[in-house]
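Hey team,

Sharing the RCK N-terminal domain-containing protein run so nobody has to redo it. Sequence (633 residues) first:
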Amino acid sequence: MKKRDSLGTRLRYGFDKSMAAGPIALIGWLAVVSLLIIIAAAGFLAVTRIAPEGGEPLNFFEAFWEALMRTLDSGTMGGDTGWAFRLVMLLVTLAGIFVVSALIGVLSAGVDSKLDELRKGRSRVLETDHTIILNWSPSIFDVISELVIANASRRRPRIVIMANMDKVEMEDEIAAKVGKLGNTRIICRSGDPTDLYDLAIVNPQTSRSVIVLSPDGDDPDSQVIKTVLALVNDPNRRTDPYNIAAEIRDGKNAEVARVVGGAEVQLVLADQLISRIVVHSSRQSGLSGVYSELLDFDGCEIYTTEQPELTGKTFGEAVMAYEHCALIGLCDQKGRVSLNPPSDLVIGKDMRAIIIAEDDAAIKLGSTGIKIDAAAIRGPRSVEAKPERMLILGWNRRGPIITYELSRYVAPGSILTIAADTPGLEREVAGLPVAGDNLSVDCHITDTSSSTALESLDVPSYDHVLVLGYSETMAAQPADTRTLVTLLHLRKIADDAGLHISIVSEMIDVRNRELAAVTKADDFVVSNRLVSLMLSQSSENPYLAGIFDDLLDEEGSEIYMRPVADYVAIDRPLTFWTIAESARLRGEIAIGHRRIRAGDTDQRALGGVTVNPLKSEALTFLPEDRIIVLARD
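Structure output:
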């Protein structure tokens, strides 16, 4: 009795463990039970020599086969004869019905469980060479759209997304807000990107690149840093380095993020990026179109590639060696970026070329023939810097960065007026840091969406007007709506005064960019889109963050839009070869032009900007046209 109790306990314990282990273990137990029933029936028939009526007694193996058939198919017993044999087979068939019914139930429950797991987005991703996006933010839709364009030439591209959201909800939002996906497949998973177990679901070990978005919440940078920490310090991580592009909002957290991610992470400092582009665009109309073109996969992009043919050439010679692309800098073995280095610098064999091109396949050394009109080239002339008056309407967390960046560029005696109605503005403006003493800052508490309040500011007296969104106190759409109202009032003020007012506006949502076009502002900086473009490009080019750090830094080489007539005579058609040579003689690199013509289409809303034009094409230029150059001042 004790042995029987002990066996029953063990069987019950084993069955309980199987219930916890899942369908596969339960199927195994049902198979064991079926085998025991069949063996018992076969042994009983062989010992008792019970056989069908009029038939020969069955040996063990024949009896085993007969019992097996009746276990699997209950209809088999319909042809049995002899009541003793029928009774034995009836018991076997009933046991078989029980086992098969249980098997169907187990399989059905297992399938339902797996479907539920798939619906919840908790199954492991089996893809390889895929791009991973971690966390969820409004930027994700532009990131996906850009990656779809980048993936057009790839075979079976995949984008895997993980966030603390329902899988179905993520899929529905992507379907509603992202256009055609082309050959790219989107895979969504629900989980916490800072958790090692959840992170393993998206299979980062075989990924191509990882994009870490800054999520909504009170402390998004901490979430990003923890996610990067989980990626690079996973005990089961791969030996090859990751290519991680991470968004950080507050520049104060950048140092910690760099310590955590090391050389594997490129940081996109969102507020610094947007603020610097706003400042540059406010001082040079149309410049945001240049940055959008360089960051957009749907046009010319920045590539970092080995060009062994350049070894031994000076940088000045190499600049004029490409017809279909533009060489703008070099990158050494340690990944250090140098944009527009000295013309006499000899290019070493371990250097990589930084090139603007429409596609990597278009990067080819050589040209069909350089045609330079030397007589049309004009020498440089000095321009005296003058004090400027600037006005900022609206305020958000990027305001202090914009103020500091402006103070680095303006001449002594410049004035910045900040007008907004955000809480605590006067106290914040009083403590704003500025570089040097060239810029003085004053503050006006006023409703920037009121025409009366704007007229009292004497807007036409300012050289530049910047309109910022109230993104800290309002949602994206209401903030953009208030910006649009402000822009419409400014347009009326300019029309009434009969003057052109230089206006640059920050928009949060790219969908409002077209609505804002009726305000006739000089430029629009779409903040969320720029961050998305930067993250997308950084995931493909591990040197891009360093390149843009140099481009947007006052101490490095920057992009300028200057009158084309300052470089060449415009009384006759000229090739871009001539313009490029004129810029090269000044230690600059010509990378494009801005020509606005009444009949020209501007489908990509770049304001007439053309980056990396064909150098051999002859064009006519007007005094208002601009040349886009990379220069140090």
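The CA atoms of residues 125 and 202 lie 5 Å apart.

Ping me if you want the raw files.
A.
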